[in-house]
Structure formats: structure tokens, C-alpha cells
Design brief:
It contains 4 helices and no strands. By secondary structure, it is an all-alpha fold. The longest helix has 15 residues. The termini are far apart.
Length: about 70
């Protein structure tokens, strides 16, 4: 697995917490193309195909606790 950047880790954490794209972009101060690039990079690096797989992956990596 390629290492996630700090921005990718933060986007992943926010996605896992259920925030939508607009909220994430607002929170991080990024634009839509940067958000999409980051999201796609996360999926590729973690070898997952769906955003719905973000939550279990984030939990298993210890990024969020439940």
C-alpha cells in the first residue's frame, strides 16, 4: 500500500465520519477537483472500489474509533 498524504488521511477520516463532499471541501478549504483527486487517490492506494469501504478501512487503520 502506498502511504497516504496528510490531506488524504484527513479526507478519509471525514468521509468515514459521514461528511459529504461539500462539507469536506468547506472544512479543508479545498476545491472540487482537489477533493476528487484526493478521493480517487485514496481508493487507489487502499485498493478499494467503493466509498462505502472507507469506514471499515479507516477503523482497521486506527484513523477513527467506534
Amino acid at each position: 500500500m502506498d502511504k497516504l498524504t496528510p490531506l488524504e488521511l484527513e479526507v478519509m477520516r471525514l468521509l468515514a465520519e459521514g461528511l459529504d463532499a461539500y462539507s469536506i471541501m468547506n472544512w479543508l478549504g479545498i476545491d472540487y477537483p482537489e477533493y476528487v483527486k484526493c478521493k480517487n487517490s485514496i481508493l487507489k492506494k487502499l485498493k478499494i472500489k467503493r466509498i462505502t469501504q472507507i469506514l471499515p478501512t479507516a477503523v482497521s487503520l486506527g484513523l477513527i474509533d467506534f
